[in-house]
Structures are given as C-alpha cells and as structure tokens.
Design a protein that fits this description.
The chain is of the alpha/beta class. The protein is built from 19 helices and 15 strands. The protein folds into 2 domains: 6-247 and 455-468, Rossmann fold (3-Layer(aba) Sandwich); 259-448, 3-Layer(aba) Sandwich (Rossmann fold), CATH 3.40.50. Bound molecules: uridine-5'-diphosphate. Its EC number is 2.4.1.-.
Length: 480
C-alpha cells in the first residue's frame, strides 16, 4: 500500500501534566520525521470543571510553549451525575469523550494512526469505528506495564483483594516481586468500581496494533523482554512493543528564555553538592511532614534545593490548584535563617529538568513519577525514592530492586517519614560507598539513555520500526 503523502497522526491525551509532557514530546518526534500531528485533548464536562480547573491552564501553557504543534480541544461531554471519586471522574470523562473523538477522526481527510494514552482505552472503539489503527503510548515504566498487563490473569486465577495481602510479594513476569501494598490504590479492592474499570482497561490493551513506551531498553531490559515474549498476557498475543524513550521536555529555560532564580543559586554551589527535593506536579506532604523534612535536611548538614507546595487541605481536592505556600507558617521557626547559606526553598514549582542537569545537583528526593525518573536517569542523578500516589510505589520497587538507581525513604507508607530517616538517607547517598555505587550506576544510565536516542540506538531504531508499521518507514530522516 502506498503511504498517504500527508499522513496525520492523532495523539489522544488525557488530562494531567505528567501525561501531557511525554505526549507533546512524541508529537515533536513525529513532526521531525515529517508527519502531520494533532493532539486531541478532552475538555472536562461542565459538572467537573472545578475539579479539573488546573488542567486547562496546563494545556494552554504547553500549547503556547510549542507553537508548531496543533492541539484540538474536543467538546466537553455531558456528565450530569459525576462520580464523587476524582480518578473515576477522569476515566468517565475519557470514556464520554469517545463520540466527540470519533467525530473528529471522521472530520479529517486521512488518519494514519490514533495514539492513545493508557487512560484513553475506551477510545479503541473510536479507532475501530473510524477504521484507523490504534496504538497505545504508555508514559510510565515498562515494568508497570508488564505488571498491569498480567493483572487480569492474576485476578482471574486468585481470590480476594490485594488490600488484604499486606506486603505479600506479587510475582509478575519481567519485574522484581512487588509487595501487594505497593500496588496502586486503584487496583487494591476487587469490589471497587475503579478496580473493575482498570482491569477492563488492561484487558483491552492487546486490541491495539502496538504499544509505544517512554522508556529505553537498557533501563528495563527484563521487563521489555517479558513483554516481547508474551509472558505478561498468558492467553492472547501481546502487540509489538516499541521503547522509544526517554522522551523528555527540554526544560522551561529553553522554552521561554527566562532563567529561574534557583538555577543562579545552583551556579554558586560546588559541583555535586546539592540534594534536590520535588514531588512531581501534584505531590505534596502534610505540615507535620514538611517540618520533619526540614529537620532532617538541617541535621544532614548538606546543601539542598527544596520545592515546597501547600499541603492538600482535603484529599478529595487533591487535583485542585493550591494556594502559594506560606513558608513562615509551614517550616520550623528559624529554619530558613539557619540554613540560608546552604539551602534554598522554592515555592510550588522549579524547572526540574534544568535542576537535574545542573552540575551542582547530587541527589534527588523524588515521588517516583515516571517523567521524574527518566529526567534523573538521563541526568545521572541518584534517587531517594519517596512514592506518593498512582503507580509510584511500583516504580520505587523497580528503581530500588530492579534498576538499582535509588534507595528508599523508609516510612513512605506510614504516617510520617521521620527526620532521622531523611538525614540518614541523604548522608548515605552523599557520603558513603553506597552513594558512590549509585552514582556509578547512574553515570551508566545517563550514557545509555543518550545512546538509545542517538542514530542507530535502540529507541531511535524502535521509533523507525513504529513508522514502518504505520507504512511510513521511508520518513526516517529527521527534519532539521
Ligand atoms: N515538574 C517540574 N517542576 C516541578 C514539578 C514537576 O518541572 O516543580 C515536571 C517534572 O520535570 C516532570 C513532570 O513535571 O516532567 C512531573 O511528571 P512525573 O511523571 O514525574 O510526575 P506526576 O506529576 O505525573 O506525578
């Protein structure tokens, strides 16, 4: 079959900064290979507008920073009786957006493929109805995907719920044993609608023509092998898997030309001397926990750059934009003055990519969101893993027990991580042999990330394979 001269790839994103960033990077990659791309984004239904009020500005910011990429805002669906659960609201929104997505696909002269975020599984129906091949783009780790693809089989062959299994290790092909308590809350309770919905989603992934993963083979060789060998889905063929990462934003500095004050502060610090703490686009901790972190950092004696966000007032409002934190109220009395010569606290947001790549940054206290992991791995920065929500606890297991790129902050699954633990782990990574071993391993991870993306590297080749599958194998030359 001859390729259409103007192939259009439609990327269907879900809401959430951590999902949008890698989708935008994929769009850039497709554009560089000469394909026309549009990112179709959902618009929250009027009944959930408050809830998703932080998402629209995020899309607008990304659209403004990437003028070469077209964003198409799908019309908001009707959702008269929103589920009280935030996550289900989001999944319901994505499901209800299938008809407008189908109308959009039908309005385009020719669509080469529909690439779906994993939260947009229901959109497989739109692809089928429009006669368009569907691919998934998984924006977290291959290891998580291996486990999730195996979950429907696990549930079909076992009884009870993961929530009742404590730390019992679960064995999934291609990943280290994962304690049941480290699985995402969305799959802990078999009787829950969220769990049934997610299992239904995982069970439909094999319907896609292929799965792109934002990872690189060296980092997750074992998981990728298990996926390719079909070990994760025992009863059906696994679609071809393309590891095309790490795809990461270049950073804000590159986008708008302004330099954040924390980067100038880092310029003045010695090489590899600063511990960076940041919990993703949404993560935040309680007031009590903030004080405990402050004490741990102060007692460690090390330099630090810390992104502090206002604690969530109400767990049900987790996704809502939060006010700027009042550091005077949140941090221990005198902390800022006492640590003035070796610490900087940034409120709400820091240019993480640039911070991680800065020569002064030595370690990263992270919530283990996958973008953060890839950014740290590609910058060669060891991680102190403090998972908070979603699949971050699974990523922690992969990072510590599998990839050996980090250590765990004990107490992440209890009410409080103690100041003594913060101090101990900071010292461990900054002062001891274990830290040196981690740094050596991270140096390798950084080199291998660059190699994977370079011409002839595993991710570059995988992307070319994907284009061939789209019947655009000859569009492999990057445009300048
Ligand atoms: N990020 C940032 N500055 C911040 C917090 C987050 O630049 O202060 C970026 C970070 O670099 C990453 C993304 O936001 O690219 C967060 O994605 P991740 O998958 O790590 O976590 P999520 O926010 O999805 O939980």
């Amino acid at each position: 079959m001859e390729a259409d001269p103007n192939p259009m790839v439609v990327l269907h994103a879900c809401l959430g900064v951590g999902h949008l960033i890698p989708m935008v990077e994929l769009a850039k990659l497709l554009l560089r290979r000469g394909l026309a791309v549009v990112i179709a984004v959902p618009t929250p239904p009027a009944s959930t507008a408050d809830f998703f009020s932080s998402s629209a500005p995020a899309v607008d910011r990304m659209a403004a920073a990437n003028p070469s990429i077209s964003f198409h805002h799908l019309p908001p669906p009707e959702y008269p009786d929103p589920d009280p659960d935030a996550f289900l609201q989001m999944l319901d929104t994505m499901r209800l957006t299938v008809p407008p997505l189908l109308a959009f696909l039908r309005s385009l002269p020719s669509v080469a493929a529909l690439v779906l975020d994993l939260f947009c599984v229901d959109a497989l129906d739109a692809a089928t109805a429009a006669g368009v091949p569907a691919y998934f783009y998984y924006t977290s780790s291959a290891g998580d995907l291996a486990a999730f693809l195996h979950l429907p089989h696990h549930f079909a062959t076992t009884e009870g719920s993961l929530k009742d299994m404590g730390k019992t290790p679960l064995r999934f092909p291609g990943v280290p044993p994962i304690p049941a308590s480290d699985m995402p809350h969305t799959v802990l309770d078999r009787a829950d609608r969220t769990c049934a919905t997610r299992l239904g989603h995982y069970g439909r992934i094999p319907e896609a023509r292929g799965i792109l993963i934002n990872s690189y083979e060296w980092l997750e060789a074992r998981s990728v092998r298990a996926l390719r060998e079909g070990a994760c889905i025992p009863d059906r063929p696994t679609p071809p898997v393309y590891c095309i990462g790490p795809l990461m934003a270049k950073g804000e500095e590159a986008a708008n030309g302004e330099r954040h004050a924390c980067l100038s502060w880092l310029d003045a610090q010695p090489e590899r001397s600063v511990v960076f703490l940041c919990f993703g686009s949404l993560g935040a901790v309680s007031v009590k926990q903030l004080k405990e972190i402050a004490r741990g950092l102060e007692n460690s004696g090390h330099r630090f750059l810390w992104v502090v966000r206002s604690p969530p007032q109400d767990p049900a409002k987790f996704f809502l934009p939060r006010p700027e934190p009042d550091l005077g109220m949140l941090l221990p009395e005198g902390f800022t003055e006492r640590t003035r010569d070796r610490g900087m606290v940034v409120t709400s947001w820091a240019p993480q990519v640039e911070v991680l790549r800065h020569a002064a940054t030595a370690a990263f206290v992270t919530h283990c969101g996958w973008n953060s992991v890839l950014e740290a791995a590609s910058a060669g920065v060891p991680m102190l893993c403090w998972p908070q929500y979603a699949e971050q606890r699974m990523n922690k297991v992969l990072l510590v027990d599998g990839m050996q790129l980090g250590v765990v902050m004990d107490g992440y699954d209890e009410e409080l991580v103690k100041a003594e633990e913060v101090e101990k782990k900071v010292r461990l990574v900054m002062e001891f042999e274990e830290g040196k071993k981690l740094r050596d391993r991270l140096t390798m991870a950084k080199e291998m990330a660059a190699k994977a993306l370079a011409d002839g590297g595993s991710s570059s080749l995988a992307f070319t394979e994907f284009l061939k599958d789209l019947n655009f194998g000859n569009t492999t030359k990057e445009k300048a």
